[in-house]
From TrEMBL:
Family: Belongs to the HisA/HisF family.
GO molecular function: glutaminase activity; imidazoleglycerol-phosphate synthase activity; lyase activity
Protein name per the record: Imidazole glycerol phosphate synthase hisHF
Organism: Cucurbita maxima (Pumpkin)
Catalytic residues of the enzyme: 139, 244, 246, 287, 445
Length: 590
């Protein structure tokens, strides 16, 4: 009789019990050696005593096809978190020799196909998949399997699955890109999706493949967003998903685990969720800067002033960025946003502490990370010029999923509105062309300016809900740069419309007047912008209680709401906000 297998862990010096989830069992054992998991096999004789024989094997190696675009660090971290080593594809032969292959496609369709074709990897990839070898494509790694894409095209794909990848239709009042946590409709034979259990997974994309009679045998799940699109495919050992498992928290890790350990079983199924549609997102924001002692800290402003109103006038210190981000992930934050409010002013790529924050955070935080602060072209002290694309690329390589552009987007929009010409040279255009517009967030920092008459300025004017200090009934929202210190001749409405055309995929909408006040979001501003653009809008500035979140979701078209101070000071817990939203009938990820 075959001896039963047991799960234990071994360190380099002694055998110890490892605290795995009690429900997880596998025919192979996972050993901890030098702080890294290793797969081994163990046999136990059915006598009163037992003997352990462990031998490490090469089964713990995952081959990763990283063609150099976007945040692949998150996938790497998730694979290592699950106990596997990584071998990077260097040649087409590495693909053909892989025992299991993961292709985390990030960015735009055409550049990815160019890399595959130019390096001779497209043919090897097709051969590998056609031979039914273990394969997992992620996001663009799914789209490239189809015949072609309309993204900057038509562009020919690998042609393994019938169908054309097309853009979402934004004319039916759905924001594009599709960003956020959505529900899946899973087929019976999905295998790697078996542990999702009706819970949300994270999507971020502008293009999708549609079900048809020709590709229906491939489809393992679909998702509804305007139309029903293909969320995952499966044929034999070949899998691909449109969503991001590495950014879908514990649910996503279960998908990766199912692929990497296909013979594993769960004796206890995860708690069944109630996901039915796209959830509203609750985002934790961390304003990061150095304090007067040179330490990197999380701070929070009061109308953008981050110093205490005391004799010492010190920078408010609300915690360490990596620790706080990890805590917010455990608390249920749907995304974590870092704003580097003092760095990258003179030498962006020299800001190593902030890059390290991203690297360390992404090791254990498996939800989307956004980072902003100083994304622009610059020339260093030696005369070396760096493009904003190079700066953004370093952010992505360090663990960011999206980058946020502030002042540079204002200048680009002003130039575009003045000339009517898209030069392709702005940071918005450069980054969105390579990484896709879903990777680019524009942070708008407006200040409310009251008016007696709507004809007083050339910018978009609204009738305000609450009158101004002198009884004014109208206002416009003047955009600012340099941390709110300098007003610009452009309104928030005009800026939002312009950056959408230039390639922004999302808007982070702040309000200087509401910042740190705890009296609620500026609903007039959020409604104005979210009704005017077809890309998602994140409401920011002013949250003081859970009611403010339900208010902004019920009264505007905001896709997400962001808060900082109330979470840092533990005045309101993220789960309290989500519990309140559920009671109000607003879908959230739990």
């Amino acid at each position: 009789m075959e001896a039963p297998s047991f799960s234990i862990a071994v360190s380099s010096s002694r055998t110890v019990i490892r605290s795995f989830p009690s429900s997880f069992h596998t025919s192979s054992l996972v050993f901890l050696r030098n702080n890294r998991y290793k797969t081994c096999h163990l046999k136990v004789k059915s006598t009163g005593k037992f003997a352990v024989r462990a031998s490490f094997s090469g089964d713990s190696v995952v081959t990763l096809l990283d063609y150099g675009a976007g945040n692949v660090r998150s996938v790497r971290n998730a694979i290592r978190y699950l106990g596997f080593d990584i071998k990077d594809v260097q040649t087409p032969e590495d693909i053909l020799n892989a025992k299991r292959l993961i292709f985390p496609g990030v960015g735009a369709f055409a550049p990815a196909m160019d890399v595959l074709n130019n390096k001779g990897m497209a043919e090897a990839l097709c051969t590998y998949i056609e031979n039914d070898r273990p394969f997992l494509g992620i996001c663009l790694g799914l789209q490239l399997l189809f015949e072609s894409s309309d993204e900057n095209g038509p562009v020919k794909g690998l042609g393994l699955i019938p169908g054309v990848v097309g853009r979402f239709d934004s004319s039916n009042c759905f924001s594009v890109p599709h960003i956020g946590w959505n529900a899946l409709e899973i087929s019976d034979d999905s295998e790697i999706l078996d542990d999702i259990c009706n819970r949300h997974v994270y999507f971020v994309h502008s293009y999708r493949a549609m079900p048809s009679d020709k590709n229906k045998e491939w489809i393992s799940s679909t998702c509804s967003y305007g139309d029903r699109f293909i969320a995952s495919v499966r044929r034999g050992n070949v899998h691909a998903v449109q969503f991001h498992p590495e950014k879908s928290g514990d649910v996503g890790l279960s998908v990766l685990r199912r692929f990497l350990l296909p013979k594993s079983t769960l004796t206890k199924k995860p708690t069944e969720g109630k996901a039915s549609r796209l959830a509203k997102r609750v985002i934790a924001c961390l304003d990061v800067r150095t304090n007067d002692q040179g330490d990197l800290v999380v701070t929070k402003g009061d109308q953008y002033d981050v110093r205490e109103q005391s004799e010492e006038n010190e920078v408010r210190n609300l915690g360490k960025p990596v620790e706080l981000a990890g805590q917010y992930y455990k608390d249920g934050a749907d995304e974590v946003s870092f704003l580097n409010i003092t760095g990258f002013r003179d030498f962006p790529l020299g800001d190593l502490p902030m890059l390290q924050v991203l690297r360390y955070t992404s090791e254990n935080v498996f939800v989307p990370l956004t980072v902003g602060g100083g994304i622009r072209d610059f020339t260093d002290a030696n005369g070396r010029h760096y493009s904003s694309l190079e700066v953004a690329s370093e952010y992505f390589r360090s663990g960011a999923d999206k980058i946020s552009i502030g002042s540079d987007a204002v200048y680009a929009a002003e130039e575009y509105l003045r000339t009517g010409v898209k030069t392709g040279k702005s940071s918005l255009e450069q980054i969105s062309t390579v990484y896709g517009n879903q990777a680019v967030v524009v942070s708008i920092d407006p200040r409310r300016v009251y008016l007696k008459s709507p004809d007083d300025v050339e910018f978009k004017v609204i009738r305000v809900t609450n009158q101004g200090p002198n009884g004014e009934e109208y206002a416009w929202y003047q955009c600012t740069v340099n941390g709110g210190r300098e007003g610009r001749p452009i309104g928030a409405y005009e800026l939002a419309k312009a950056v959408e055309e230039l390639g922004a995929g999302e808007i982070l909408l702040n309000c200087i007047d509401c910042d740190g006040q705890g009296k609620g979001f500026d609903l007039d501003l959020v409604k104005l912008i979210s009704d005017s653009v077809s890309i998602p809008v994140i409401a920011s500035s002013g949250a003081g209680c859970s009611d403010h979140f339900s208010e902004v979701f019920n009264k505007t078209n905001a896709s997400a709401a962001l808060a900082a101070g109330i979470f840092h000071r533990k005045e309101v817990a993220i789960q309290s906000v989500k519990g309140h939203l559920l009671k109000e009938g607003i879908e959230v990820r739990i």
